[in-house]
Amino acid sequence: MTKTILDIESWNRKEHFRFFSALDDPFFGITAHVDFTAIYHEARHDAQSFFLYSLHHILTKANEIDEFKLRIEGPDSVVKYDTIHVSPTIGREDGTFGFAFFEYLPNRDEFIRQATHEIARVKDGSGLSFSENTGRVDVIRYSSIPWFSFTEMKHAGSFKNGDSVPRISTGKLIDTHGSMLLPISICAHHGLMDGRHVARFLNKLSEP
């Protein structure tokens, strides 16, 4: 978990950070439909999980944007992690879910292998399946909601405890004349990023 401490006083977002951090709810949310046709066909061609193919793509692009790597640690301290990972929710047959931790590995096959083992751990468990890694802050909180598409979403959070971890959720794929559109909801701390950073992320998701 290598990280760099930002110099708040010389940071061009100093006032933004302090203003939004003082709010009861400093998070903002954006929902968009993103073209995942290429990822969808890759997963089908390889007979692999679209969930894992799309999640690896999302995590790869999030790691290319510094603002997604920023976290608040302490009352007036911001750090930037070199790499961020993902803590997804994994559903079980009994209708419950548990929390998992997938390390970000640039090689997709390696990412899928370790994620598959972690999925098995959660599915074989009960309750929320917390581990020593699920509570880390150098992650994206992620959930897949494959039963329906959506145009807006509200995420749970614990703002009074200084939470600054971004949340990303995806919905049911929408087949629009052969284009596979994925609803994506991004919820992030406004003291650390703005809509333009989310726009960069969404644009990157459309890249190969």
Can you put this structure into words, describing what you see?
The chain is of the alpha+beta class and 208 residues long. Helices cover 27% and strands 25% of the residues. The chain contains 5 helices and 10 strands, in the order βαβααββββαββββα. The strands form 2 sheets. Strands 2, 5, 6, 7, 8, 9 and 10 form a 7-stranded mixed beta sheet that branches. Strands 1-4-3 form a 3-stranded antiparallel beta sheet, with no helix packed on it. A hairpin with a 5-residue loop joins β5 (85-91) and β6. α2 (37-45) packs across α3. The longest helix is centred in the middle third of the chain and has 16 residues, at 108-123. The mean pLDDT is 95.
Write out key terms for the chains shown.
single chain, three-stranded antiparallel beta sheet, seven-stranded mixed beta sheet, 25% strand, alpha+beta, 208 residues
Q: How many angstroms separate the termini?
A: 28 Å
Mean pLDDT: 95
Oligomer: single chain
Count up the helices: 5
H and E string: EHEHHEEEEHEEEEH
Helix percentage: 25-40%
- List the uncertain runs: none
Please give the number of β-strands. Answer: 10
Largest sheet report: 7 strands, mixed
Structural class of the secondary structure composition? alpha+beta
Strand content: 25-35%
Instruction: Report Rg.
Output: 17 Å
Shape annotation: globular
